[in-house]
Model the fold of this input.
Amino acid sequence: MSRSLKKGPFVDVPLLEKIEVMNRGGEKKVIKTWSRRSTVVPVYNTENMVGHKLGEFAPTRQFKGHTTKADKAAQLAAAAPAGPGGGPAGASGGGGGGAKAGA
Done:
């Protein structure tokens, strides 16, 4: 839902103070902020930035690429336990290790 026009754009106070200090000094440099809810105010920016939220274009996930069938098979083979007799004693869940009935 968008913000009403009579309220105007929302900008966090610390961010607004940084912008005002830069405007008073005549500086034009990049401001790094994590305020995703703030609207880009008309400071030194391009036309296509005005009116967008600051965090709208921030990457939040890292794409590592699609996997192939060979990659999935290799992952399954590495994660699968060894066959019968391939693991340490008692690891296979078979009747090894404890006292047996009737012995």
Observations:
- Residues 24 and 37 are 24 Å apart (CA to CA).
- The chain is about 25% helix and 0% strand.
- The chain has a mean pLDDT of 76.
- The first helix runs from residue 13 to 25.
